[in-house]
Structure formats: C-alpha cells, structure tokens
Amino acid sequence: MSEAKKVFLFGYSGHAYVIIESLLDAGYKVAGYFDKKEAASNPYQLPYFGFEKEVNVRNIVGDQLVFPAVGDNSIRKVLVYFFNSLNLKQFVLKDPSANISKTASIGVSTYVGKAVLINAQSKIGEGVILNTGSIVEHECELANFVHIAPGAVLCGNVKIGNESLIGSNSVITENKSVVGGALIGAGTVVTKNVMENGIWFGNPVRKK
C-alpha cells in the first residue's frame, strides 16, 4: 500500500477545517500549516511552520503538495501566485462525495467540496472554492479565484468572472454572466447579466 501524500496548508481557521476533513477523507496526510502567526486553537493538532514570507518554504515543503486553505478570494490569489513563484506542487482537492463530470476541467488549487455537482463540459479556473452542496450545471465557466458558497446553483452556460463571490443558496439562471469582483448576496436570484462589480442582492437581483 502506497504512503499517503502529504499536504502543507496555507491558512488555518474555519475554512481550513473543512479542507482538512476533505483531505483526510480523500486519503491525504496533513503535514502542517503556514500562517501569519500560530493559531490560538489547533483542533487537528497540526505543526506550525511559520509565516510563508519569513521562512524558507521551498526547503520545508520540498516536493510535497501545497494548498491554499483560506476563504478570502484575494488572499487565495496571492497564495497561488506565491506557489507559482516557487514552483510548488499544486493539485485539485476533490471531496470524495463530490460528483464531477468526466468532461469538466478544473484548475489547480481549487477545492471541490462535499456533495458538490459539476456537470458536463464545465470549466473551473484556478484557486476556486466550490463549497458544500453547490451545483455547477453544464457548460459553465468559472474564472480564477471565484467562491461559490454552500447551496448556490449555477444553471447551464453561466459565466462567472475572476474573484467573484456567489452567496449561499443563490441562483444564477441559464446563460447569464457575472462580472469579475461582484458579490452576489445569499438567496439572490440572478435573471439578468451582472456587468458591474459591487454588491448585488434580491429577487429579482438589484445593486445595493
């Protein structure tokens, strides 16, 4: 039996806990974490390796895997660029309960969470979070560093721009686009293209 692959996490708080449990369920071993400071709470008893800007990450990580365990889109973007600069080994984390089409494509450092559905011919960028129970229907395109919150539904042919946040239980109807940097509030129903960034909410959707 082969030894479990080790993963070094960057960030260690609420979202990281979800990542850790998906890693363990998928057969990985969590080697420890990097963060600005050592966490006050350490429920998974992980070793702390320091702040990535103050230690030699390349020497510590070696040829093991790395993963951005933070929910904030902009911080996740910085981390992925940092990984690229050091040529660290990135991967796609797929929770075993996720249902992913064989024709879907997914970029590195993306998290596909518990009970997520990704349907045929969808394209998911790098550093994306598809959170618990979210649905990405056929031929959707998600740019880099997007966050799809729990229970959100993207109907067919939806396009989501860089660093957008699609709130919990919101619905983006078929063939609609959401511009990069937009925040779609929880429970929102998007029935038209959202072409300005900022906060959008309601049914029908409107800008705050």
TrEMBL record:
Domain PglD N-terminal: 6-79
One function term, GO molecular function aspect: acyltransferase activity
InterPro entries hit by this protein: AcTrfase_PglD-like, Hexapep, PglD_N, Trans_hexapeptide_repeat, Trimer_LpxA-like_sf
Protein's UniProt keywords contain Cell inner membrane: no
Keywords: Acyltransferase, Transferase
Marked site: Increases basicity of active site His: 139
Residues annotated to bind acetyl-CoA: 147
Binding site for substrate: 13-15, 71
Gene3D superfamilies linked to this entry: 3.40.50.20, Hexapeptide repeat proteins
Active site (catalytic residues): 138 (proton acceptor)
Keyword Acyltransferase assigned: yes
PANTHER family attached to this UniProt entry: ACETYLTRANSFERASE (PTHR43300), UDP-N-ACETYLBACILLOSAMINE N-ACETYLTRANSFERASE (PTHR43300:SF7)
Family: Belongs to the transferase hexapeptide repeat family.
Protein name, UniProt field: Sugar O-acyltransferase, sialic acid O-acetyltransferase NeuD family
Organism, as annotated: Cyclobacterium lianum
